[in-house]
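Feature request disguised as a bug report, sorry. It would help if multi-protein outputs had a clear separator. Right now it looks like this:
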Amino acid sequence: MLLQASSLVEHVAPEPTCCTRCSARIIEAGDRERRRLERDLHDGAQQRLVSLQLSLQMLRRDLGPDADPAAVAELEAASAEAAAAIADIRELARGVHPAILTESGLGAALGSLADRAPLPVVVTDELDRRLPGSVEATAYFVAAEALTNAIKHSGASRIDLRTWLADDQLHLDVSDDGRGGADTMNGTGLTGIQDRVAALGGTVRLESRDGQGTRLEVALPCASP
């Protein structure tokens, strides 16, 4: 799957320092801002476009069966453009901060990621409670990055994604049956994952042997340092 990784790499965050705590606050502030942007997109631009689409549909209906075909075609084209814009905004809002993560938690959000993947992704969610927002957001974006890289680079036919709690830590495991043999020296995907996880005092372990697929394991404390 993933990125580029050597056969076995482990990154363990040090004890929380002032810099680590500052990084965690920056991550949390960014997550809050993403949630705000998602709400603004949903409650603002998206709702206005939905209203516009409904108005166009009502206008088309009011024209009746004897309407000018050219006018009908223009209205239908405008309505289709509005629908496409709504879909674009929904996709953009999901990328900024998925509403399902806030409303339903990490398991549901990961399930949504799996549903949109172009190859089978099996999610095993063993969480029995909600976690701090920064922890859920970090796990979600780590999973999204891992899935993206697996889909692009691994040649896998299946990806397994598992979450569970142990020792007051959230554990996230992303594994695939692809070609393996990734190289940690190239690419920025793993660096981004490491930085995000380290900001919460977590650990990253990546195993990627030639012909044996790739496995990414992340552990996050269930509270920010």
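(second protein starts here, but nothing in the output says so)
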Amino acid sequence: MNKEIRYYFQLFRKVQILRFARELGSTKAIREFNVVGSTFYKWKRAYNKGGIEGLLRKRPIARSHPNMISSDVTDKILHMRSVYKLGSWRIKWYLERYHGIQVSESSVTRTLKRNGVNVLEKSTSKRALHSKRYSKTVPGHHVQVDVKFLSFMDSNGRHVRRFQYTAIDDATRIRALKIFSRHNQENAIIFIDYVVEKFPFRISTIRTDRGHEFQAKFHWHVEDLGMRHSYIKPRSPYLNGKVERSHLTDQREFYQLLSYKDDVDLNKKLQAWEKFYNLNRPHGAHQGMTPYEKLKAILK
């Protein structure tokens, strides 16, 4: 007897028992057919409510699930995505770090998908096929330096150009940031002095592209400070990939949320972002640790 035939046979038996009980009483039906009392009365309630359809086997649906994400957590996930444009891994780390909420990355992804939230746009730039990812293990061994070009609109609708100088340590991802109104060697020298003062370790090598701001004056200033200055190969920005990638993070998580006005103090806001990036922002390359937590782990 296959499963389907057995199922309908059992359904027919239930109906016969209930009809017998209607004529001769429930107690006699239970005794005659040797049915558990609680089971019989369950059948009876279902039959009285829905007839034979009430006796059909229904797929069980859990009223709640122990791992179900609450509406409060769902609201936090959607808020982080819509306001701060964070990916699923970063949302997971922020929930753990700042809200004490343990949730898996896959659960965050399912929550976003269930609420019709599209995936974040990926970078259109592609890493060269022959390039190889690497990471130094000694803080200060390599520090990548580059400039991010900024364009704002002032209150009169005129374009305002600014230049963000950025340094990032290869091993820890600790960064130093500063904005200048001019793009030249003098400001590059001022910036590198700021980097030396800011980084909590000795720097061995500064690595840049061959931009005009990193030419002779800058080169010899770096060498005079006891550091080595090396240039990456021409037309090979991927060799300074970490600083390039950090500029994408700046655009998504800082400048995208910034409203420029004539009286805005960009450097003051940027220093707050620099501090947050180094001390509080979970970093994907460190599996959710911040750059300074990574430094502490390396020093241990």
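Even a blank line would do. Unrelated, but nice: The first helix runs from residue 3 to 24.
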